[in-house]
Design brief:
alpha/beta; six-stranded parallel β-sheet; globular; 15 helices; single chain; 6 strands; Histone, subunit A; 2 domains; Rossmann fold
Length: 309
Protein backbone atom coordinates (compact mmCIF):
# COMPACT_ATOMS: atom_id res chain seq x y z
CA UNK A 1 0.00 0.00 0.00
CA UNK A 2 1.28 3.47 -0.92
CA UNK A 3 1.19 6.49 1.36
CA UNK A 4 0.43 9.93 -0.08
CA UNK A 5 1.44 12.99 1.95
CA UNK A 6 0.06 16.31 0.75
CA UNK A 7 0.04 19.69 2.44
CA UNK A 8 0.81 23.38 2.02
CA UNK A 9 4.30 24.62 1.38
CA UNK A 10 6.56 24.70 4.47
CA UNK A 11 4.30 22.35 6.46
CA UNK A 12 7.04 19.79 7.10
CA UNK A 13 6.02 17.19 4.50
CA UNK A 14 9.55 16.19 3.54
CA UNK A 15 10.67 15.58 7.12
CA UNK A 16 7.68 13.35 7.82
CA UNK A 17 8.16 11.47 4.55
CA UNK A 18 11.81 10.85 5.43
CA UNK A 19 10.93 9.63 8.93
CA UNK A 20 8.39 7.21 7.48
CA UNK A 21 10.73 6.02 4.75
CA UNK A 22 13.33 5.10 7.36
CA UNK A 23 10.71 3.47 9.56
CA UNK A 24 8.93 1.51 6.81
CA UNK A 25 11.81 0.78 4.40
CA UNK A 26 10.20 3.22 2.00
CA UNK A 27 11.12 5.22 -1.06
CA UNK A 28 10.24 8.93 -1.09
CA UNK A 29 8.75 9.97 -4.45
CA UNK A 30 8.27 13.62 -5.34
CA UNK A 31 4.83 15.09 -6.13
CA UNK A 32 5.84 18.75 -6.27
CA UNK A 33 5.86 20.43 -9.67
CA UNK A 34 8.80 22.70 -8.83
CA UNK A 35 11.00 20.20 -7.03
CA UNK A 36 11.34 18.26 -10.29
CA UNK A 37 13.64 20.99 -11.65
CA UNK A 38 17.37 20.61 -11.09
CA UNK A 39 17.80 24.41 -11.34
CA UNK A 40 15.89 25.09 -8.09
CA UNK A 41 17.21 23.04 -5.21
CA UNK A 42 17.13 25.99 -2.79
CA UNK A 43 14.01 27.92 -3.81
CA UNK A 44 11.89 24.79 -4.27
CA UNK A 45 13.03 23.48 -0.84
CA UNK A 46 14.12 20.14 -2.24
CA UNK A 47 15.40 17.59 0.29
CA UNK A 48 19.04 18.13 1.16
CA UNK A 49 21.81 15.83 0.00
CA UNK A 50 22.05 14.59 3.58
CA UNK A 51 18.34 13.68 3.62
CA UNK A 52 18.61 11.97 0.25
CA UNK A 53 21.42 9.84 1.65
CA UNK A 54 19.18 8.58 4.48
CA UNK A 55 16.53 7.03 2.21
CA UNK A 56 15.97 6.62 -1.53
CA UNK A 57 14.41 9.67 -3.19
CA UNK A 58 12.93 9.65 -6.70
CA UNK A 59 11.78 12.33 -9.19
CA UNK A 60 13.68 15.16 -7.52
CA UNK A 61 15.73 17.50 -9.69
CA UNK A 62 15.55 15.19 -12.70
CA UNK A 63 14.15 17.76 -15.18
CA UNK A 64 15.99 20.60 -16.89
CA UNK A 65 14.48 24.06 -16.41
CA UNK A 66 14.11 24.50 -20.18
CA UNK A 67 11.45 21.76 -20.21
CA UNK A 68 7.77 22.64 -19.87
CA UNK A 69 7.18 19.60 -17.67
CA UNK A 70 3.56 18.49 -17.50
CA UNK A 71 1.43 16.37 -15.21
CA UNK A 72 1.29 13.79 -18.00
CA UNK A 73 5.08 13.53 -18.07
CA UNK A 74 5.09 13.26 -14.29
CA UNK A 75 2.62 10.37 -14.43
CA UNK A 76 4.85 8.56 -16.91
CA UNK A 77 7.85 9.03 -14.62
CA UNK A 78 5.74 8.09 -11.60
CA UNK A 79 4.61 4.83 -13.23
CA UNK A 80 8.24 3.79 -13.68
CA UNK A 81 9.11 4.81 -10.12
CA UNK A 82 6.19 2.86 -8.65
CA UNK A 83 7.11 -0.22 -10.69
CA UNK A 84 10.66 -0.10 -9.33
CA UNK A 85 9.45 0.33 -5.75
CA UNK A 86 7.07 -2.62 -6.04
CA UNK A 87 9.72 -4.80 -7.69
CA UNK A 88 11.98 -4.22 -4.70
CA UNK A 89 9.21 -4.91 -2.17
CA UNK A 90 9.44 -1.45 -0.66
CA UNK A 91 6.83 1.14 0.38
CA UNK A 92 6.07 4.10 -1.88
CA UNK A 93 5.77 7.37 0.03
CA UNK A 94 4.57 10.06 -2.38
CA UNK A 95 4.99 13.56 -0.99
CA UNK A 96 4.39 17.04 -2.35
CA UNK A 97 2.24 20.11 -2.54
CA UNK A 98 0.89 19.86 -6.09
CA UNK A 99 -2.72 18.83 -5.70
CA UNK A 100 -3.19 18.21 -9.43
CA UNK A 101 -0.49 15.53 -9.29
CA UNK A 102 -2.34 13.69 -6.52
CA UNK A 103 -5.64 13.95 -8.38
CA UNK A 104 -4.07 12.53 -11.55
CA UNK A 105 -2.36 9.77 -9.59
CA UNK A 106 -5.54 8.57 -7.85
CA UNK A 107 -8.27 9.46 -10.37
CA UNK A 108 -6.57 9.32 -13.75
CA UNK A 109 -5.62 12.02 -16.21
CA UNK A 110 -7.68 13.74 -18.85
CA UNK A 111 -6.04 13.34 -22.27
CA UNK A 112 -5.00 16.76 -23.55
CA UNK A 113 -4.53 17.44 -27.27
CA UNK A 114 -1.22 18.77 -28.53
CA UNK A 115 -1.32 22.49 -29.29
CA UNK A 116 0.71 23.39 -32.41
CA UNK A 117 3.48 25.87 -31.68
CA UNK A 118 2.09 28.39 -34.15
CA UNK A 119 -1.31 28.31 -32.43
CA UNK A 120 0.23 28.77 -29.01
CA UNK A 121 2.34 31.68 -30.25
CA UNK A 122 -0.66 33.33 -31.91
CA UNK A 123 -2.76 33.09 -28.74
CA UNK A 124 0.04 34.49 -26.60
CA UNK A 125 0.74 37.33 -29.04
CA UNK A 126 -2.93 38.30 -28.98
CA UNK A 127 -2.92 38.14 -25.17
CA UNK A 128 0.31 40.10 -24.68
CA UNK A 129 -0.16 42.99 -22.29
CA UNK A 130 -3.72 42.06 -21.34
CA UNK A 131 -4.62 41.80 -17.66
CA UNK A 132 -5.95 38.50 -16.35
CA UNK A 133 -9.59 39.70 -16.05
CA UNK A 134 -9.55 40.75 -19.72
CA UNK A 135 -8.20 37.34 -20.72
CA UNK A 136 -10.92 35.71 -18.63
CA UNK A 137 -13.56 37.79 -20.45
CA UNK A 138 -12.11 36.67 -23.78
CA UNK A 139 -12.29 33.03 -22.68
CA UNK A 140 -15.87 33.50 -21.49
CA UNK A 141 -16.85 34.74 -24.95
CA UNK A 142 -15.70 31.51 -26.65
CA UNK A 143 -15.75 28.92 -23.86
CA UNK A 144 -18.10 29.96 -21.04
CA UNK A 145 -18.06 26.46 -19.53
CA UNK A 146 -14.32 26.52 -18.89
CA UNK A 147 -14.36 30.19 -17.93
CA UNK A 148 -16.76 29.35 -15.13
CA UNK A 149 -14.22 26.87 -13.74
CA UNK A 150 -11.27 29.28 -13.66
CA UNK A 151 -10.48 32.23 -11.45
CA UNK A 152 -10.22 35.56 -13.36
CA UNK A 153 -6.86 36.02 -11.60
CA UNK A 154 -5.27 32.87 -13.06
CA UNK A 155 -3.74 33.95 -16.39
CA UNK A 156 -1.72 30.78 -17.04
CA UNK A 157 -4.72 28.45 -16.88
CA UNK A 158 -6.83 30.92 -18.85
CA UNK A 159 -4.20 31.02 -21.59
CA UNK A 160 -4.07 27.23 -21.62
CA UNK A 161 -7.85 27.07 -22.09
CA UNK A 162 -7.66 29.63 -24.90
CA UNK A 163 -4.91 27.62 -26.60
CA UNK A 164 -6.92 24.39 -26.42
CA UNK A 165 -10.00 26.08 -27.84
CA UNK A 166 -8.00 27.74 -30.63
CA UNK A 167 -6.36 24.44 -31.57
CA UNK A 168 -9.42 22.17 -31.36
CA UNK A 169 -12.59 24.25 -31.30
CA UNK A 170 -13.54 22.34 -28.14
CA UNK A 171 -13.77 23.41 -24.54
CA UNK A 172 -10.93 22.33 -22.26
CA UNK A 173 -13.70 21.14 -19.92
CA UNK A 174 -14.77 18.53 -22.48
CA UNK A 175 -11.29 17.00 -22.44
CA UNK A 176 -11.16 17.10 -18.65
CA UNK A 177 -14.30 14.98 -18.55
CA UNK A 178 -12.41 12.10 -20.21
CA UNK A 179 -10.08 10.33 -17.77
CA UNK A 180 -7.61 7.47 -17.99
CA UNK A 181 -7.38 4.76 -15.32
CA UNK A 182 -5.45 5.93 -12.24
CA UNK A 183 -2.00 4.58 -11.40
CA UNK A 184 -3.18 4.00 -7.83
CA UNK A 185 -6.61 2.44 -7.65
CA UNK A 186 -8.93 2.91 -4.70
CA UNK A 187 -7.88 0.72 -1.81
CA UNK A 188 -4.20 0.66 -2.76
CA UNK A 189 -3.25 3.88 -1.02
CA UNK A 190 -3.85 6.02 2.05
CA UNK A 191 -3.59 9.80 1.96
CA UNK A 192 -2.94 12.45 4.58
CA UNK A 193 -3.00 16.23 4.33
CA UNK A 194 -0.86 18.17 6.76
CA UNK A 195 -2.80 21.10 8.20
CA UNK A 196 -0.59 23.26 10.43
CA UNK A 197 -1.84 26.25 12.37
CA UNK A 198 -2.29 29.06 9.83
CA UNK A 199 -0.56 31.74 11.90
CA UNK A 200 2.41 29.48 12.63
CA UNK A 201 2.62 28.49 8.95
CA UNK A 202 2.85 32.12 7.86
CA UNK A 203 5.76 32.66 10.23
CA UNK A 204 7.44 29.45 9.05
CA UNK A 205 7.14 30.60 5.42
CA UNK A 206 8.74 33.94 6.27
CA UNK A 207 11.61 32.36 8.17
CA UNK A 208 12.20 29.72 5.51
CA UNK A 209 12.52 32.32 2.78
CA UNK A 210 15.00 34.25 4.90
CA UNK A 211 16.97 31.02 5.29
CA UNK A 212 16.83 30.44 1.52
CA UNK A 213 18.31 33.87 0.90
CA UNK A 214 21.06 33.14 3.39
CA UNK A 215 21.63 29.85 1.54
CA UNK A 216 22.39 31.70 -1.70
CA UNK A 217 18.98 31.56 -3.37
CA UNK A 218 19.89 34.76 -5.20
CA UNK A 219 22.86 33.01 -6.80
CA UNK A 220 20.48 30.24 -7.91
CA UNK A 221 18.23 32.78 -9.64
CA UNK A 222 21.26 34.56 -11.13
CA UNK A 223 22.28 31.28 -12.78
CA UNK A 224 18.72 30.77 -14.00
CA UNK A 225 18.64 34.28 -15.48
CA UNK A 226 21.89 33.64 -17.33
CA UNK A 227 20.22 30.78 -19.22
CA UNK A 228 17.88 33.19 -21.01
CA UNK A 229 14.90 30.87 -20.73
CA UNK A 230 11.37 31.68 -21.87
CA UNK A 231 9.74 33.58 -18.96
CA UNK A 232 6.54 31.57 -19.53
CA UNK A 233 8.25 28.32 -18.50
CA UNK A 234 7.13 26.88 -15.14
CA UNK A 235 10.61 27.12 -13.61
CA UNK A 236 10.60 30.87 -14.26
CA UNK A 237 7.34 31.27 -12.33
CA UNK A 238 8.40 29.37 -9.21
CA UNK A 239 7.76 31.20 -5.96
CA UNK A 240 10.43 33.81 -5.45
CA UNK A 241 11.91 33.59 -8.93
CA UNK A 242 9.99 36.48 -10.62
CA UNK A 243 10.61 38.79 -7.68
CA UNK A 244 14.30 38.01 -7.40
CA UNK A 245 14.66 38.41 -11.16
CA UNK A 246 13.06 41.84 -10.79
CA UNK A 247 15.60 42.62 -8.08
CA UNK A 248 18.48 41.51 -10.30
CA UNK A 249 17.08 43.73 -13.05
CA UNK A 250 17.03 46.75 -10.76
CA UNK A 251 13.25 46.95 -10.58
CA UNK A 252 12.88 45.92 -6.91
CA UNK A 253 15.10 46.31 -3.91
CA UNK A 254 16.26 43.14 -2.19
CA UNK A 255 13.88 43.79 0.71
CA UNK A 256 10.89 44.45 -1.55
CA UNK A 257 11.60 41.35 -3.61
CA UNK A 258 11.74 39.27 -0.45
CA UNK A 259 8.51 40.75 0.89
CA UNK A 260 6.66 40.06 -2.35
CA UNK A 261 8.02 36.53 -2.56
CA UNK A 262 6.84 35.80 0.97
CA UNK A 263 3.41 37.27 0.23
CA UNK A 264 3.17 35.15 -2.92
CA UNK A 265 4.14 31.99 -1.06
CA UNK A 266 1.65 32.60 1.75
CA UNK A 267 -1.13 33.14 -0.81
CA UNK A 268 -0.15 29.87 -2.47
CA UNK A 269 -0.37 28.05 0.86
CA UNK A 270 -3.92 29.34 1.30
CA UNK A 271 -4.83 28.05 -2.17
CA UNK A 272 -3.34 24.66 -1.31
CA UNK A 273 -5.60 24.45 1.76
CA UNK A 274 -8.63 25.38 -0.33
CA UNK A 275 -7.76 22.89 -3.07
CA UNK A 276 -7.37 20.05 -0.59
CA UNK A 277 -10.66 20.85 1.11
CA UNK A 278 -12.57 20.70 -2.17
CA UNK A 279 -10.55 18.30 -4.33
CA UNK A 280 -8.86 15.83 -1.97
CA UNK A 281 -11.67 14.70 0.33
CA UNK A 282 -10.15 11.21 0.73
CA UNK A 283 -7.07 12.65 2.43
CA UNK A 284 -7.10 12.58 6.23
CA UNK A 285 -6.25 16.01 7.66
CA UNK A 286 -3.82 16.09 10.57
CA UNK A 287 -1.33 18.39 12.20
CA UNK A 288 2.36 17.95 11.36
CA UNK A 289 2.99 17.21 15.05
CA UNK A 290 0.49 14.35 15.04
CA UNK A 291 2.00 13.01 11.83
CA UNK A 292 5.52 13.03 13.27
CA UNK A 293 4.32 11.28 16.41
CA UNK A 294 2.54 8.63 14.36
CA UNK A 295 5.56 8.19 12.09
CA UNK A 296 7.72 7.32 15.06
CA UNK A 297 5.40 4.42 16.00
CA UNK A 298 3.95 3.19 12.69
CA UNK A 299 4.61 -0.36 11.59
CA UNK A 300 2.78 0.05 8.25
CA UNK A 301 1.06 2.63 6.08
CA UNK A 302 -2.35 1.67 7.45
CA UNK A 303 -1.04 1.82 11.01
CA UNK A 304 0.35 5.30 10.37
CA UNK A 305 -3.00 6.58 9.18
CA UNK A 306 -4.79 4.91 12.08
CA UNK A 307 -2.36 6.34 14.63
CA UNK A 308 -2.77 9.79 13.12
CA UNK A 309 -6.55 9.79 13.21
Amino acid sequence: MALLIAGPTASGKSAIALALARRLDGVVINADSMQVYRDLRILSARPSLEDEAMAPHRLYGHVDGAVNYSVGQWLTDMAAALDAVRANGRTAIVVGGTGLYFMALTRGLSPMPAVPAQVREAVRRAAAGEAAPALHARLHAVDPLMAAKLRPSDPQRILRALEIFAATGRSLASFQAERSAPLLARGTWRGVFLAPDRVALRETINKRFDAMMNDDALHEVTALKARGLDPALPVMRAHGVPHLLAHLGGVLSREEAMTRAKDDTRAYARRQHTFARHQLPEFLAMTPQAALHAAARAASVAAFADLSA
